[in-house]
Automatic annotation (TrEMBL):
The family this protein is said to belong to: Belongs to the histone H3 family.
Record flagged with keyword Nucleus: yes
Protein name (Swiss-Prot/TrEMBL): Histone H3/CENP-A, histone-fold protein
Organism: Helianthus annuus
High-level lineage: Eukaryota, Viridiplantae, Streptophyta, Embryophyta, Tracheophyta
InterPro entries the UniProt entry points to: H2A/H2B/H3, Histone-fold, Histone_H3/CENP-A
Predominant subcellular localization, coarse grouping: nucleus
Length: 88
């Protein structure tokens, strides 16, 4: 599958792109660093994942616009940094 068809495939879908188990482990790891013995309902973790993915998609959209503005088609770390600064 070439890159453009892969992009179109993911643009058409509404399913989560990050696997649930690794995301749940990450949430637990971050929560443990803040307070031990925290428990999460599965719906709460799913809501966190939805929001996290929406944030990342928006960030990459903004990053892509920064790269296009610089007359490039490839995003670079400096594009992400600029997008984050503009969002702040």
């Amino acid at each position: 599958m070439n890159t453009n068809s892969e992009i179109r495939k993911y643009q058409k879908t509404t399913e989560l792109l990050i696997r649930k188990a690794p995301f749940h482990r990450l949430v637990r790891e971050i929560a443990q660093a803040l307070k031990s013995d925290l428990r999460f309902q599965s719906h709460a973790v799913l809501a966190l994942q939805e929001v996290a993915e929406a944030y990342l998609v928006g960030l990459f959209e903004d990053t892509n616009l920064c790269a296009i503005h610089a007359k490039r088609v490839t995003i670079m770390a400096k594009d992400i940094q600029l997008a984050l600064r503009i969002r702040a």
